[in-house]
């Protein structure tokens, strides 16, 4: 599994020397929970060694909500609730208390409003659109949604936002679907993911320096 991360693009899942610093303005929810940070975070770009996708139970932070919706139109086996029960089976009581079901797919953005920095109080959300089942699942359509502000990248330490939020959830869903469909009764080793970016740390640093030069040139005026 290959994962491409580009720090110049915002992520929306409906993603060394001279490393780039991503500055974020601090934003807090009403209960004081920090949604983004004012300190600089160093982006580690390039390509490094592959690593196993983390488990959903390991990465899910119950300080945030995990939201899901069943938008299917018929009874299926397994059902969306069966899949959710499967992926949350290793959750602690605190983690389970942060799982929220909403009535429709349209309720997801209402439950997870983003601030001006494109962060919300939700860890991620999943919407089940269609499950085609017979003796086994013939097809399943679901959408993972996440904050557009999840643009932090660290390919060296495998702590990119996509690696800590999107991939663990996606693997948990796929593993649950395979198991509940009866296609396998055994356990699975998590797949390997290989994060990479389109540009290197050095190229990004050069782009930033040139950007500062352009700003200085445009703001420079003579005092008479």
Short summary:
With 224 residues, this protein is of the alpha/beta class.
Task: Provide keyphrases for this structure.
single chain; 224 residues; alpha/beta; four-stranded mixed beta sheet; three-stranded mixed beta sheet; 6 helices; 11 strands; 27% helix; 24% strand; globular; disordered N terminus
Give an overview in words.
The chain is of the alpha/beta class and 224 residues long. It has one domain (2-15, 46-199). Helix content is 27%, strand content 24%. The chain has 6 helices and 11 strands. The protein has helices at 56-59, 80-87, 93-96, 107-111, 161-180, 201-219, and strands at residues 2-4, 20-23, 27-28, 34-36, 40-43, 51-52, 65-70, 99-102, 122-133, 137-145, 192-196. The chain has a 4-stranded mixed beta sheet. β9 and β10 (137-145) form a beta hairpin. α2 (80-87) packs across α5. It is globular, with a radius of gyration of 20 Å. Mean pLDDT is 74; it is low at 1-40.
Number of helices: 6
* Share of residues in helices: 25-40%
**Could you say which structural class the secondary elements and strand pairing correspond to?**
alpha/beta
Main pleated sheet: 4 strands, mixed
The first-to-last residue Cα distance is 61 Å
**What series of H and E elements makes up the topology?**
EEEEEEHEHHEHEEHEH
Mean pLDDT value? 74
* Sheet with most strands: strand arrangement: 8-7-9-10
The low-confidence parts are 1-40
**Per the principal axes of the C-alpha atoms, what is the gross shape?**
globular
**Rg on CA atoms, Å:** 20 Å
Overall strand count = 11
Beta strand %: 15-25%
Oligomer: single chain
Domain unit count: 1
